[in-house]
Amino acid sequence: HQLHLVPQALLLVILMNINVASTSNIIKTLPGFRGDLLFKLETGYVGVGAMDDVQLFYYFFESEGSPEYDPLVLWLNGGSGCSY
Hints:
three-stranded antiparallel beta sheet; acyltransferase activity, transferring groups other than amino-acyl groups
């Protein structure tokens, strides 16, 4: 059972070293999709570094099952203009 604590501890360390998202948006509609979204979608940037000099973009899709108990997946990858 200790192996299950490793990802949670790693996430805690990451979250302790970043600030709250400097910008965030709740997305209600998407182009090409009629009506409101059927799930919670948030996007934004999280500042990292001593002076938030690096901004990481994120998508947050809330669990449609049980958000309080379902696992959280943090996926970061670089790309053009996104790598540090």
